[in-house]
Amino acid sequence: MEFELDSPSSPLAAPQEPPQIRRLEECVVNRIAAGEVIQRPVSAVKELVENSLDAHSTSINVVVKDGGLKLIQVSDDGHGIRFEDLPILCERHTTSKLSTYEDLQTIKSMGFRGEALASMTHVAHVTVTTITKGQLHGYRVSYKDGVMEHQPKACAAVKGTQIMVENLFYNMVARKKTLQSTVDDYSKIVDVISRFAIHHTSVSFSCRKHGAVRADVHSVATSSRLDVIRSVYGPSVSCNLMKLETSDSDPVGSIFSMDGFISSSNYMAKKTTMVLFINDRLVECTALKRALEIVYAATLPKASKPFIYMSIQLPPEHVDVNVHPTKREVSLLNQERIIEKIQSVAESKLRSSNTSRVFPEQTLDPSQLSPFSSSKDSQTDSPPTASKSQKTPVNKIVRTDAMDPAGRLDAYLKAKPLEGLERNPSLTAVRSAVRLRRNPKETADLTSLQELIDDVERNCHSDLLDVVRHCTFIGMADEILALLQHGTHLYLANVVNLSKEIMYQQVLRRFAHFNAIQLSEPAPVSDLIMLALQEEDLNSESTDGDELKQNIAKLNSELLKEKMEMLEEYFGISINSEGYLSMLPVILDQHTPDMDRIPDFLLTLGNDIEWLDEKNCFQGIAAAIANFYAMHPPLLPNPSGDGMHFYKRKATDNRDDEGNTIEKADIQVEEKDEIDNDLISEAETAWAQREWSIQHVLFPSMRLFLKPPASMATNGTFVKVASLEKLYKVFERC
Ligand code: ADP
Ligand code: MG
């Protein structure tokens, strides 16, 4: 179709004649405005629940049909609506909560604009049933476009108000269509009710689908917020929460008080849940959310996202509640200062809780050991148990200390030290405990072992030893190389080589004295070796038959079974009589190996060890363990690097092409580039975990234990890249 360029009504009309300005019809204005306030079903639910809360209800029940598009019904036991007010109840800008503009400064109610109900009547059919105190009966009346459709009818009613919103967006075809084609709003509604439930603990909430017997959110009024969190979000959340409080009363700085709960290091989630109330309003504050996410990312070994519930109270005149039509955002006086303060208490709380972190046992499921699967952590729901008690198997607990600021890049970025952050002495305790095991006396009689240890000492390069002892870790330069500063020199150091060497040396030092990593499910050695053989095949395109591989796998696992006593006693590797691997040694405290590498490790043990010569045998096993535990780049490509293309999924063409409308075709095109978010998040976790380990485990242990062999000076493990003095000279000239 062609545009009629000279038509006066065309938006592309020539500019000589300005188009006429006309007043929009009132119903159009109202509908446009309504569409802004009620953007989707969940916004209607939020407004209705806020009205119920404003009416001092103690019980609020929500019923939803078809994601809210067919029906939203909110019933409360609040003070009800006066009969005389019913005619104007749903007119725009009618409210019982605000009379002068100045009232906004001190307003405590959630509503104040008198727009919500009016908006709903412009985009849905609204029916109100209400009864006020002392009345014998209630009234029911329906509204359309702001006005009553008929006189209120007397009816039986229970205390409070029930508002029914039916056929939402019946007159906004485009909106309805987009909502119908996207995911059901019901989960958003459940989410909003859950949030209200954990904040308003003196109110009982329920939310269910129309016709469903069971509610999806059900909370009972109680005095304990943790109890409500448990009943709404489940024990896996409530058990892993820590109370957080802070306040400020500096009239020139900021005045606020905050209390809430934040998840501890034992909580695992892929997405942040941030439930924020400011002056009892459910709001969002992206800046605060980000600030807290940063704390978690910087403090925790796993890139787990937090659960946060926070209630902030400020003088009402410090909050502008009128910055968003749905009141979703508010703006605060001194927001930055408040965020900084909250961030710093959250950080110190998290750090102190993280000093005794319980690592879950590793689950090893051989069916998942494909080249690109990575080990899954089975996260226990229970809170950290007292690790000192005799009953707790010590071998299942690995201590972590994130307090060691040495060498942290972020330590240098911080302008000022955070308040209340003291150096925790537990790291020293862990270190000395480890040191005690450095020279196990009982095993000194094994001459071959002693010889291997002596070899390490003899080979040690004294200059590199000084670098290793006194270097500062600056950050990772790429996937393999870390940037270090030593005195005025910068070095690139290969973390794979370094970690392999330190693991090797630690195996020798801890010989026969290992703590254990227990596999929660023992893994069949023979199947794992088979996996490794098939994997080798993929790489070398060898054509050995499966039968041959089966035989090799069987022979190797038989061999390992034969050696199981020695492997267990000296190296903490436990293989039971059925040929299942059940235990691995702890080589560096706080570090667990990448379980995807078990098949390779077992194959090396089965194939490459010289069992007959004691010294060679010990050396071979130590090297195999070292290679297994070394901090290799994770098998999943780094999504933040070049690896992103790996996660782009091809369209799964399961639709019928012929019957497709253009819209559907569009959707398909989009799907071609669909990204596998689960895998990305798994990869991100693996990479973040590795970086954490390099910084907090590898480098601190290296400073203490590594005796760098002379070969590291020449084989590229350490490369001096610059001298700061020279760099400064260059800059001076600039
Ligand atoms: P606002 O909440 O901004 O005042 P609304 O359109 O949401 O505007 O509601 C208009 C008025 O209707 C409120 O001021 C209140 O007096 C009354 N109202 C609405 N819902 C309820 C309810 N559930 N219980 C009692 N009164 C209600
Ligand atoms: Mg309201």
UniProtKB/TrEMBL annotation:
Tagged with keyword Nucleus: yes
Aminoacyl-tRNA synthetase among keywords: no
DNA mismatch repair protein S5 domain: residues covered: 229-351
Key words, A-Z: Coiled coil, DNA damage, DNA repair, Nucleus
Residues annotated as transmembrane: none
Compartments it resides in: Nucleus
Pfam families linked to this entry: DNA_mis_repair, HATPase_c_3, Mlh1_C
Coiled coil spans: 538-565
Gene Ontology cellular component annotations, sorted alphabetically: MutLalpha complex
Ranges of compositional bias, category Polar residues: 364-393
Gene3D superfamilies: 3.30.230.10, Histidine kinase-like ATPase, C-terminal domain
NCBIfam families: mutl (TIGR00585)
Family: Belongs to the DNA mismatch repair MutL/HexB family.
Protein name: DNA mismatch repair protein S5 domain-containing protein
Protein's organism: Linum trigynum
Source lineage: Eukaryota, Viridiplantae, Streptophyta, Embryophyta, Tracheophyta
